[in-house]
Amino acid sequence: MNKDVQSVFEQLIGLPIEERRRQLDAACRDNDALRREVETLLAAHDAAPAFLNAPTASFPSAMAVESPIREKPGTRIGPYKLLQVIGEGGFGVVFMAEQETPVRRRVALKIIKLGMDTRQVIARFEAERQALALMDHPHIARVFDGGATNSPSPSKSEGGEEGKLSPSPFKGEGRGEGSGGSLPAGRPYFVMEYVKGDPITQFADARKLSIRERLELFGQVCSAVQHAHTKGIIHRDIKPRNVLTSMVDGKPFARVIDFGIAKATGSPLTDKTLFTEHRQLIGTPEYMSPEQAEGSPDIDTRADVYALGVLLYELLTGATPFDAKRLRSAAFAEMQRIIRDEEPLAPSVRVTRLRADAPLSEPRPLGSGLSTEPRPSGSGLPSDPRPDLSEPRPLDSGSEIHDPSAKQPLPDGRGSEMQPLPHGRGSEKQPLPSGSRPGHAPFSVAFTPQGRGSDSAATIAHHRRTDAATLLRTLRGELDWIVMKALDKDRARRYETPNQLADDVRRHLSGEPIIAAPPNAVYRLRKFVRKHKTGVVAASAVAAALLLGIAGTTWQWRAAIYYSNQLQDNARVMAAALSDTLDAANGAATIEGDSLLPNSEFTRFSKEQFKDEGITMGRRSDGQREFWVGQFEWRDNRDPNFSRTMIVYLGRQALTAIHESRERAKALEAVNTQLRVQNDLAISTLIDLRLHNRTVYSLSLVV
Amino acid sequence: MQPGTRKLDVSTLLLDPQLSPRERAECLLPLVYDELRAIARVRMAAERRDHTLDATALVHEAYLRLIGDRDIPWAGRGHFYVAAAEAMRRILIDHARAANRVKRGGGRARLSLLDVADVSELAEVIQEDSSEMMRFDEAFRRLEGESPDAADVVRLRLFAGLSVQLTADALGVSTATVDRRWAFARAWLYRRLKNDG
Questions:
Q1: Whose CA, among A54, A206, A406, B34, lies 20 to 30 Å from A19?
Q2: Could you give the percent of chain A with pLDDT greater than 70?
Q3: ipTM exceeding 0.90?
């Protein structure tokens, strides 16, 4: 019966009033209930023209994502004739195109496929155009032009409502149509210098560039970004796919592409009505600075410095600071949290964590590697290695590496995976974590699992023409510090400019002292203590209690034997690191005339100990210190229980040590030669405890 | 949760020919719901208090996070939107329950349920008086009892913000049918809300 109500209603609703009445009479001759139902519904329908009449009003053209790009090779857009597709992704399609007037040249033409407000994109692009035109740098690919295609907007062809590209929340579908007419007809497109080359990280691996060569290449990127900054342009989407590299005159030559595009296609977050406001937040998360991840509208040149830091990290270690896979599978809020809060491992620590058992694998040959990828959304646009194209610029001397079909030896035989274009979602096999997600528009997110992280340290080292141990030594210390400074969560603590970063890299290469320093111990301790206030206080109390007990048995445990060299070393290094930290904290406090750490009896006692034993506390090697502090923080970030466990562990370790000491002292009193070792244990235990104790004092300083 | 697997799950689910639409919806719903809620939470926290939930934007964002630019035929995407629409409806209900805000005293609301034109206005009404969501939901469920077809159209058009065309694609019917069902559902809901209030 209700079905009848509905069907009668639906039958009548499209009809003129008189016609309705007649049909209603016909439909429910003697069924008064049905008639009443239908009549009240019709009345409701007529009475409420506004009710739920614009359910998609706030949905500007988002569905354009779904529709294919209609432009094909041969299509003419303005003065450009499309030649062939050289890249494609969720974000858009990149064509190689030929410009005929005013000059004849090859260009890369990127058509934005996402449902963006064409008018706004173009307006933003126009606003930046003057500045873009002023950029003139050998390592920057120029952006020539931007506009709207003539093809009808896909959204319009899908039905009236989608035609509403405008962000303003129209009420009433009719009005949407009206304003749709005033919008540019097509999609936004950008015309850029056509650049051949491969993503920088891929290039560096395929060419097996050494660390030094990589650093020199990285310097080119910094100088390009610096140049743009001085012209007032922030890139906002620096990543390997936007840094195309090829051999020029026998030397690696990097060019940064897509300047100005991210800004034009991203939308200001202040514009609440824009759907893209939401997408803005998701870019290329691995390269996104914390402030970008937060969705802050206040993005400055230091966001680029951060991305450069990520790029350098990847060039050095073969991995991004945060695992791409993890970031992409994380829910949105989790992803933001990781970028904002988690301290990445220092590069040297990162390479030690790589799988040791992975087989040595050859880097994927450049040409084939690229073509198995889904053309990443235009971000890697002019990277097309197609062989049959004439060289657009004499610069491209490295054509042999672009030619996948040419007799390039493919060590692993993967050349056969080469596919013409995108649908091959082959990137799962792709060793590069970079850029598989198109960056400008968050919407182009390609959730591509990354395989890079599974490379073994040996493979990573092999790609850098070195061995794992040497690589570790090379990275440890200065390079760690440089990278970590660029990656600081707080942009005020990063390098201020790409140049500063490049200068520090150069200074490192030439053996001069660098600006970057090991992460400030006081700062890090402060963060730690703040985070674990209760735990630290508790641990310190335990430590204090233990100390009282220890005092009585000092002579005894001095004679004890340490049961594990490993444990001993760990304890010492950690103790040293913490000791440094506390010394620094203490020093700072003293300078402020606020010394809360009196030179207690206990402190003097331990100093005596160190002197006797020739141990200079706080003078551990930077590498060891870094390693342990890094370990500590790494664990702390991942495991909320870690610090609690750690504190308990330290306490237990002290007890075990004392206990064991007593046991063994009885048995081994005579073993004089081992006294030194025993003493070390005692000292490290003591130091641990001392440190915890001092932390209590520090608390009052920092909290 | 295994990193990386969830993404895979969604597209696999959508593409698996073995699954009936019902099974598919059952598997999809929790995934989509979780994702939507995570995104919504960030939005709500980040925005000002008077923020109105842009449900359609959220649905779409969830779509991209869960599916990305994978090539999923429309039939499959339709299933996604059906699940997302249902998830969004539940989120609004959760939201209303949590808010538990009932307008007191004489001040007239800026909007009543009967003035609501789209889901963000619906959210606005709920913001002021969360009991309104219950009222709306009650009406919606009654409509579902009367005509599941019409309720489906409401789900997709209102809660997932799909156009007539896409709703038709998702349900596998003509646009004219969607138009008619939509008109029916609007009239039905309006009558119900007017009479019970």
A1: A54
A2: 45
A3: no
CB contact under 8 A, A55 and B157: yes
pLDDT digits (tens, 9 = 90+) for A192-201: 888 888 999 9
Q: Tell me the mean pLDDT in the region A426-455.
A: 37
Q: Does B71 touch chain A (CB under 8 A)?
A: yes
Q: From A379, A383, A392, A391, select the one nearest A196 (Cα to Cα).
A: A383
Residue in A3, A7, A56, A440 to test binding to B, most B beta-carbons within 10 Å? A56
For chains A and B, what is the number of CB pairs under 8 angstroms?
185
Strands, sheet with A80-88, edge to edge from the N-terminal-most edge strand: A76-77, A80-88, A92-99, A105-112, A188-193, A143-148
The answer, for B19 touching chain A at a CB cutoff of 8 Å, is no
Nearest CA in chain A to B117: A52
| Cα nearest neighbour of A163 on chain B | B163
Q: Is the pLDDT of residue A402 over 80?
A: no
Do A491 and A572 share a domain, yes or no? no
- For A269-289, write each residue's pLDDT tens digit: 322 222 233 333 345 678 888
Among all residues of chain A, which has the CA nearest to that of B64? A443
pLDDT digit string, tens, across residues B35-91: 777 776 665 555 444 445 566 666 766 766 676 656 666 666 777 777 888 887 887
Q: With 80 as the cut, is the pLDDT of residue A91 above it?
A: no
pLDDT tens for each residue of A490-533: 898 899 999 999 999 998 888 877 777 765 555 555 555 555 55
Helix/strand/coil for A141: coil
Q: Is B14 on the interface with A (CB under 8 A)?
A: no
Closest to A408 in 3D by CA, of A459, A451, A370, A365: A365
**CATH number of domain containing A172:** 3.30.200.20
Residue A385: strand, helix, or coil: coil
Interchain proximity B117–A48, CB inside 8 Å: no
Tell if the CB–CB gap between B57 and A90 is shorter than 8 Å. Answer: no
Domain with A149, as residue range(s), is 62-193
Contacting residues of B for A63, CB less than 8 Å apart: 162-163, 166
| Percent share of chain A, pLDDT over 90 | 12
A334 at B interface, C-beta within 8 A: yes
Average pLDDT, chain A: 64
Angle between helix A565-591 and helix A622-638 axes, rounded to 10 deg = 90
Count of structural domains, chain A: 4
Mark which of A131, A165, A193 sits at the end of a domain. A193
Instruction: State which of A193, A210, A234 marks the end of a domain.
Output: A193
Domain co-membership, A684 together with A580: yes
Residue A108 φ/ψ, nearest 5 degrees: -100, 130
CA distance linking residue A41 with residue A28, whole number of Å: 15
CA dihedral A426, A428, A429, A434 (to 10 degrees): 100
Question: Which two three-digit tokens encode residue A60?
Answer: 């500007």
